Structures are given as structure tokens and as C-alpha cells.
Amino acid sequence: MRRKLFSYRDNIEDMSVFDEFDRMIKRWQRFFEELERQIDEEFQRMTEPRYQYRGKPRFYYYGFEITMGPDGKPIVREFGNVRSRREGAGIEVVDEIEPLTDVVEDDGKIKVVAEMPGVDKDDIKVRLSDDNRTLIISASGKDRKYYKEIPLPGEVIPEKTKASYRNGVLVVELEKKDKTKKGFEIKVE
């Protein structure tokens, strides 16, 4: 099936959905080939004795997850300690790992699940931003450091937040602020 799409110059271009998908896959292939090349170069450099980290070579942790968004377009989420530089000039390896996280919204509640193996419960710090719309997770263990700021799909009530950590998985349960309630009723005595 072919459809007509308008270009930026208002020219009509005949394009197949599959052509666009092929172009997207080729872009990702080029990205991962370049990423692999840069990681190999960085690994060679970082394994030299002068670049040892706490007596051990630094490790590389990179992954991605592709899901389908509500508009039908793919959403790619990256995690790990290998990141693209903002200037677009290569990659950088940082000490803090960005954990893989999932945010699930259900009936006035938000559940955030983060995979953070290799740290103790006492090493984890969970806090909300000043506007109660961003969850900030950090942890510093013997061999690993984690850090991630997670935008929440709404404002939450800080007093009703619960967190638990078992088997390397952090679960934070938050209650959304009810937007239908306006103000606060005060009882007259």
C-alpha cells in the first residue's frame, strides 16, 4: 500500500511505509556500528594501566528498549553508562549507570520499577524534585553507581510514597495528586 506524504517544500512524494521502516533500520545499523567502533577504541584506551579504575578496568553497560508509543511510532529508551556526547562527537563512559526503568500509571497511582543490581538497600537514595513531578534515584555501592531522573506523568503526594528493594529491583509506588479536588475543606467547630 502506498500513500502520499507532503515534504517540507509542499512537494508530494510517493513513499511506502516499508521504505520508511527500511530507512529507520539502516539508520540504527549505522548508529550501532559506529557505537561498537567507538566502544572498541575506548575499551582499548581504558585497559591501559594508566587508566585503571579502582584497580580494575572500567566496565561498559549499554542497552536499549524499543516500545510502540500511543501514536504508533517506536520509542527507543537507552540505559547503561555509555552515552552519546551532546555535541554529537562520539560517546562517553560515565561512572553512574542509568538503570532500566518502567513507569506504570494506573487508577491514580504511579509505579516506577528500576533494575539496580549490585547495591545494598542502604546505599539507595530516592527523592522527589521540588515540584513533585520528577523522581530522582541514586545509589552508590562498592562496584556500581546508579543515577536517573524520571519524569512522572503527574504531580504526586510525597507523604504517600513507598519504596522497596528486593533482588536488585527497586519499586517505588506513588499516589497522584487528585486534580478534581480544588482547595481544602476546613471543618468549622
From TrEMBL:
- For whether the record's keyword set contains Cell cycle, the answer is no
InterPro entries, sorted: A-crystallin/Hsp20_dom (IPR002068), CS_dom (IPR007052), HSP20-like_chaperone (IPR008978), HSP21-like (IPR044587)
Occurrences of domain SHSP (ranges): 91-189
Q: Which GO terms describe its biological process?
A: response to heat
Q: What is this protein called?
A: Heat shock protein Hsp20
Q: Which UniProt keywords apply?
A: Stress response
Which intervals hold domain CS?
A: 96-185
Q: Which NCBIfam families match?
A: Hsp20
Q: Which family does it belong to?
A: Belongs to the small heat shock protein (HSP20) family.
Q: Is the DNA damage keyword given for this protein?
A: no
